[in-house]
Amino acid sequence: MIDIIIDKKKIGVRENQTVLAAAKENGIKIPHLCFHPALRPSGSCKLCGVEVISTGGKQVVMLSCILKVKENLEIKTDSELVRFNREKSFNNLLQMAPDSSRIRNLAKEFDVPVTPQPNGCINCRLCIRVCNEIVKASALKMVKNKNKSRIMPELGHCIGCGTCANLCPTDIIKVNDQDSVRTISIKGEIIGQLPLEQCEGCGNMYATASFLRHVQEITHPHPDTKEHHHLCPSCIKLMSNRTLTRTFHETLVSWKNT
Ligand code: SF4
Ligand code: FES
Question: What kind and span of H or E run contains 207?
Fold first, then answer.
């Protein structure tokens, strides 16, 4: 057995083992990912760096999965230099694997600040602009937090038209119609959840009641529009075919039977 000093504490360790193995055996935590006890170390992830005073008296960071213990070796596992290097290593790894929850959880465990998980938004603001300028519902806004911009819903403004989802170039806005309810979400975060209206002609769920109300409010009704009828675009097209001589109901019945 030999003595080494980890974080100012003298501990007895077995000769020839690595600093990481010695630390583990003594309940001292050092982050690591590419180390495996059954394999030779590769020094790839660089997370296990510890501070060592070199023979020239300089503070250096060395990989504890490779560094072997020796008598009176003194190391620090949480110095400023270690934390600086650790943060850099975590962020390098996350550049390659931004969705890795294992890396993110490990960073959290060691209190390492890392770049937030990308959500696929390129901040083009098409969704916000179309919602403001064309739909006029102003249901989305860009919120800045710690130098990161994020699309957020303006609570209660979404009318469930789905225009933002149609324009989003990265497809992160989703529209899901289920059980007569339309749900609009950005990467799992719900922007709006609204009941769907049934077409009086064919019976399909085709638009949200909020959207239909909104259209009525911001547009002037066309003289041919029967305002009391809620019809989907296909049925409206059928209705507006002025060459038809049959009644609307007969037309629909025949259309449904084709
Ligand atoms: S959610 Fe889509 S449309 Fe909106 S800013 Fe992000 S990428 Fe652009
Ligand atoms: S555990 Fe990956 S470099 Fe040491």
Answer: strand 205-208
